[in-house]
Amino acid sequence: MKIPIDRQSLNPIYLQIRDYFSRLIQSEKLAAGQRLPSIRALSENLQVNKLTVIEAYRVLEAEGLIHARQGSGYFVSSIATSRITLRSTFAPVQEVTIAQGDGSFLEQFTASLHAQHQGNIIDFSSGFPSSFRIEELQRVAKRSLSHAADLLFRYDFPQGQLLLRQQIAQLLLQQGLEVSPEELIVTHGSEQALSLALRYYLQPEDWVIVETPTYHGVLGILKNLGAKVIGIPMTVTGMNLELLEQYLHSYHPKLIYTISTLHNPTGITTSQTHRQQLLALAEQYECLILEDNAYEGLNFEPVPAPIKALDCHDLVTYISTFSKTLMPGLRVGYMVVTGKHYQPLVEQKLLNDLHVSTVSQAIASEFLASGLYRRHLGRLRTTHLQSRNAMLQALEHHFPEAIAWTIPKGGLFLWTHLPNHIPIQTICREALSQNVLVANGAAFFPSKGYPAMRLNFSHTLEAIEQGISILGKLLKKHSISISNKSSITSKLEKLCSTKVELNNKILPTISDY
C-alpha cells in the first residue's frame, strides 16, 4: 500500500495518514470488516514512528471509521461504509432574504426547559452538556466565596474581573490565540456576547452572511435588528467560499457570522486553509467576521487555531462561553475584541447590565485556577466520545438508509438529513408524545430549509438507544423509501461532480476532506 506523504507539509503526518484512509473508507474502496495494515507494517512502509501510525488510527477510531479488535488489529467499521455521511452540500444556497424568525427558537428552548423538569423526557434537542459532579461544584463555590469575599458585595468592572480575564487569556493561549486581558470582555454567556457585538456592528438593512444551516439564536437577533441575511450553504469542509466571494462582491455585506469549530448544528470543523481563505476574503472586501466558538474545548482531536489568531487588521471578534462545558446556569461567556472596537463595546456592556455576576465570575475563576476545569474537560471529552459513538451505532441500527448524518469530531450535536417528503413537524410532535424531544432543523435556516434534525448525543447510553429506537420507528412508519447504498452513492457522486453555477442551480463542488 503506497500512501503519499508530504514531509514538508504543515499538515501533520498522522493526519495525512488519517485523511488517506478516510477517503478510501468513505468512497467504499475499503469495505466494512476489511483489515488495515498493522501498526508495525505501516510504520516501516512509510518510515515513520509507530506512535505516528497509532495516533492516525486513534483519530480514525474516534471518528467511528475503524475499530480495534484485541490481538487482531484495526478494521473498517460497518458504520463507515453502510451509510454515506459526507455530503457535498447540506442545501442549495438560500435566497437573499430578511431574516424571518417563526418563533421556533423560543418554542424549542421552552420545550427543552420543560423537559428538564420531567425526568422521563429524553431531550435530544438542547445544547446542554452532560451532568457535572455536584460535589466538585460545591467545593469550588465554597473556596471562591472564601477567596473573593471582599469583591462579591461590590460593583465590578463592566469588562469583568481582571483575574478571570487573565485566566481566560491563558486558556486561549493554549488554543493558539494570544490575547491580552485588556482585549477580553466577560459576558452573560455567549448569547449576550452575540447580542452586544451584532447590535454594535450592525444597522437596520445591513447585509449579513451566515452559514446555512446555522445557530438559530443568531437568526433571532438578526431578525430583531432588521438585518438582511444571506445564507451560504455548508459543505463538508465549511462554508462554500466560491459562493461567499460572489456574494461579497455583489452585496458588500457588513459582517460574516461563522462557527469555525464544531459548527452548530452540523458539527463540522473547518481546516486551517479554509480559515485562512475566509479571512483573506474578508480582508479583500473589508468585511467584519464574528467567530462563534461556543464548543471550545470539546473537540476529540486537535483543531486549528481560531480565525482570530490570524487576524492582523482587527476584523474578527471572537466569542465563547463556559455554558457548554461547565454549566448553562453559570452564565459566563466572553468576547475577544481588539483595536478601536474594544472601548465602545465595554461601554455597551456597561449600559446593558453593568457587569456579570461577581459570584459567577468568582466560581469560573476558581475552576480555571485550580486545574479542575482542565480535568473536567478531559472527562467530558471521554464521555462525549463514548456517547457519540453509541448514537452512531444506534442510528445505523434503527434509522432507514435514506437518511444521512454527520460524524462530528466533538461538541454536543450531530445533524441528520431527511428525504424531502418526510413530515418533520409530525415526526417531532409524535416523538414528544413518546417522551423524546428533538430539534426541528427548520429553526436553523434563515428561510425555508430542508427536513433535518439536530440531535444532542450527550446522554446516557441507555437513553440514546431508547430515544433513537423510538425515532427510527416513527421515521419508518411515515413511509420512508429505503434506498440501497449504491443509489445513495451515485446520487452523491452526481452532486460532487456538479459545477457551481450562479443561477437557480447553485451547488457547491465537494473538495478533498
UniProtKB/TrEMBL annotation:
Pfam families on file: Aminotran_1_2 (PF00155), GntR (PF00392)
GO MF annotations in UniProt: DNA binding; DNA-binding transcription factor activity; pyridoxal phosphate binding
Keyword vocabulary terms for this entry: DNA-binding, Pyridoxal phosphate, Transcription, Transcription regulation
InterPro entries: Aminotransferase_I/II_large, HTH_trans_reg/aminotransferase, PyrdxlP-dep_Trfase, PyrdxlP-dep_Trfase_major, PyrdxlP-dep_Trfase_small, Tscrpt_reg_HTH_GntR, WH-like_DNA-bd_sf, WH_DNA-bd_sf
UniProt key word Transcription: yes
Coiled coil regions, renumbered to chain: none
Domain of life: Bacteria
Domain HTH gntR-type residues, every copy: 11-79
Similarity annotation: In the C-terminal section; belongs to the class-I pyridoxal-phosphate-dependent aminotransferase family.
Designated name of the protein: GntR family transcriptional regulator
Organism: Gloeocapsopsis dulcis AAB1 = 1H9
